[in-house]
Amino acid sequence: DGLLDLAELLNVILATAAAHGRDRQLHERASAEGTRMLALIDVNKDQVLSRDEVSAFLAESGREVFNFLLTDFEQFDEDRSGGLTLQELNNMLVYVSKTPGTAAQPEAQSTAVAPMSQAAAEVPVAETTQAKVARAAKVLLTQSDANQDGVISRDEAKAMAATSGQEFLSKLVTDFDTFDKDSSNTLDLKELTVSIQAMSS
Fold this sequence. Notes:
By secondary structure, this protein is mainly α. It is about 60% helix and about 5% strand. The protein folds into two domains: about 90 residues, Orthogonal Bundle (Recoverin, domain 1), CATH 1.10.238; about 70 residues, Recoverin, domain 1 (Orthogonal Bundle), CATH 1.10.238. It has twelve helices and four strands, in the order αβαααβααααβαααβα. The radius of gyration is 22 Å and the shape is elongated. About 10% of the residues have low confidence. This is EF-hand domain-containing protein.
């Protein structure tokens, strides 16, 4: 019927949170690795990797695993400056880590975002439905509460529903006033818990 029942909705919420957590870890790992690589390859210390610097780095034996730095150079030189900034290098490392079959460092590959099905499999199976609803509500609150004031505003709900992979939360936006029982223009944890149950009906 195109609708998610409660069990399916809970699995989607929790699996999405797990996948987003992995994505955040991947970006943090790429940032650290990018900083290290920039310091290693950037011979003239101008904080930009030129094609010549990358070629010189790859010329040394045993560095073939880094060939993507050269083959994908132009694709990630977003400002067409002829060099890779730290941000562009980080973007490249994230892409390489997420792309199957791409030659990348083993440790970078190991941080690739797991498929949603794998993330869903990590949800405890012995958990009661009530406990799962409560945990899903806390997850949504943590993800959506951008200003960390302990509640979700209408704008925060819209932003979360507009995020890729979170479209199933559109009912949270359209029925916001219904879920906002105290008319505070925000959803607290209790109201969010009720809304999760309502979104599956």
